[in-house]
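Researcher: Batch entry, complex prediction.
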Amino acid sequence: MKWLSDEKLNRLRTIVNEPDFSSTKYTFVKELGRGGMGAVYLVEDRELNRLVAVKVLNTPDITEDLRRRMIREAQIIAGLEHPGIVPVHDVGTLPDGRIFYAMKFVRGLRLDEYAAQGASQRDRLRKFQAVCDAVAFAHAHGVIHRDLKPQNIMIGSFGEVLVLDWGVAKVGPQMNADLFHGLIDENHDTSHGTVIGTRDYMSPEQARGEIDQIDERADVYSLGAVLRFLLDDKATKAAKAIRSKAMAHAPESRYATAAELSADIGRLLDAEPVLAYRENPVEKASRWVGKNRFLVLLVLAYLLMRILLIFTSRP
Amino acid sequence: MDPDTDIGGPLHKFPVTNHSAIANARSDDQVTRQRALDVILTSYWKPVYKYIRLKWQANNEDAKDLTQAFFANAFEKDHFARYDAGKASFQTFLRTCLDGFVANERKAGSRLKRGGDIDHYSLDFAAAEDEHASHAVSSTLNPEDYFHREWVRWMFTLAVDAFRQRCLDSDRMVRFQLFERYDLNDDDREVSYASLGQEFGLEPATVNNYLAAARRDFRRIVLEKLREITATDEEFRTEGRSLLGVDVK
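Model: Structure tokens for the complex:
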């Protein structure tokens, strides 16, 4: 028996975990990352000659429940055709028995990486609004993400915003029946008392494991937490108020939908009054001046000219 | 029938089984129990020897005797049958037993002396000593972590050997040779599918498929070995995580 060096040992540990893409149209390129259910790999689709990301369950020795969850995730995403939701191209079983689904490979940065690169407050808010729109679309189709956080949001190289990782999404009773055949019955993995989500971003009702109480407003809370992450010290009172309203402890005090939150962010970006904050007259005037800066400058310039004319025309 | 899928495998030295040797160590059936103890001995003797050398600073000869005596004593007194999976992993249990045994032996002034009435197992101590002498000196790990790492190394070594034997028995030696050349390559030069294809007279795509199959088989063997020496599903998952670095279910 030959002695295995550390290098060989690590190599063997790696290869036994690599998914088996033989007999598929994919060629393994590299691992992109690991999550709770599986790992995501970059592969080449030889038929279409393009790179795609493939999510593969960690192990071929899976339970039926885990297999169903993975397929369910792929079906949920496939049912949500929206520019802000990463499209699924394929789902299947690898020769080693592992379930996989292939999706668009997004070249870009995660939202946390994007923010760390010094994006302006305004750019961050624009991206955030795009996230809200994608989540609002999902909500309109009865799907609640339940694990929104900067790490699950990608900013593409052309500025596009994509919400990822729908692995713990809940398909609600108001789901679009044409899109999600039977998926509502697949939520049995989340019985009452199960805590789903990420601590810093989950709503109080999620943290308490009150699965039955979780609706769109749980995602609104998580969006508020994402907004908190994106806002810096210079954030306006209106921006902070939007964050506070989204993150209200009681669901009924939050925005009722992600669309409402998106609309308030839109008003903030357009220097319109936001629903979450009642301004005093000074703030109202200040906002008006900020919004109409060009006009104000023009008027001031005109008045200055008039004053100069008055003084210069005196004998 | 495909010998690779034959229950028990083509090579009965490494039985393909879902039964845990740890559980079978309690069996009333003498044959089952003996086979289980053989599996435990095969899976642990080398890490045990190296651990005794490192932690207890025993010399080569004492470490050999203590390894033999530890397993003989444990088997004779059914120590492994007392293992409780709810309290610790089998690996931790075995190491704790080993520490207790060596401490007692030291205290008793080595009553179990060489050539005594203990069973002697045929184990390649010379190779173990060579490995220890060459590599333990440079190790910065504490004895417990060293034991674990050497156990992982030994499990993979056994799996490679079992895989080679299975390929030999099933007339698929080319798979093992490709695996050896590509994944266990000692050569610093890069080996490509194309160069292997030329060497073995195969298309690169065939090399790709053979290697994928080889890795699949190798993974299965690693998990079979792990299953043999863990008592419960939970322990299997825990040890699998430490062996492979990812979750196994």
